[in-house]
Design brief:
39% helix; 7 helices; Rossmann fold; alpha/beta; seven-stranded mixed β-sheet; single chain
């Protein structure tokens, strides 16, 4: 049985691209849909080049409708990966995909998580607090921001000369190194249960 994955992304899509590349030709897992909430986002070009269908979503039906469950079912989606997707996941989607939605966060949760903590905001806060290390957290998604149980963390040190931009570069390297593999292992593990 092949597992059909939807990747939700809001921006350039570098993590989505790495996951698509990693899963190309995989026997058991297929990236079957890219879900995006920003017209013109880079991830849409990545999806087009890879021949993966896309679904553009809007806030009203996502949060007050059925969270696009019909469209996800039409693509046989059984697992969701959030790769730089900035909207909170509605309860309807969490209930429909229990322990089958994962996210990557650019810090070591539970520190530097929650509403408004994404992208450069995270790195600026980490540097401002003079942290000695940061990293990534891959975690399950529940109804709260950055709250679900942790699957994997990877660390990087922060030097005295690091800036939010140089830290972002280190974090991207960790994301690209680990996210495709950990996502794949998580999907296979979840589907064995």
């Amino acid at each position: 049985m092949k597992h059909h994955v939807a990747i939700f992304a809001s921006g350039a899509g570098s993590n989505a691209g790495k996951i698509i590349e990693y899963l190309k030709g995989h026997q058991q897992i297929s990236v079957s849909l890219i879900v995006c909430n920003k017209p013109g986002a880079g991830v849409l070009s990545i999806a087009e080049k890879a021949g993966i269908p896309t679904l553009m979503i809007e806030k009203e039906p996502f949060f007050r409708g059925n969270a696009y469950l019909d469209e996800l079912k039409a693509h046989h989606i059984d697992f969701i990966i959030l790769a730089g997707f900035l909207w909170k996941i509605p309860a309807a989607l969490v209930k429909a995909f229990p322990s089958k939605i994962i996210n990557i966060h650019p810090a070591l949760l539970p520190k530097y998580g929650g509403k408004g903590m994404y992208g450069s905001h995270v790195h600026e806060a980490v540097i401002a607090n003079k942290e000695k290390e940061s990293g990534i957290t891959i975690h399950y998604v529940d109804e709260q921001y950055d709250h679900g149980s942790t699957i994997f963390q990877a660390y990087c040190s922060i030097g005295p000369d690091d800036t939010p931009d140089s830290l972002a570069t280190k974090i991207h390297a960790l994301e690209h190194q680990h996210f495709p593999r950990v996502a794949t292992e998580t999907i296979l593990l979840q589907n064995r249960r």
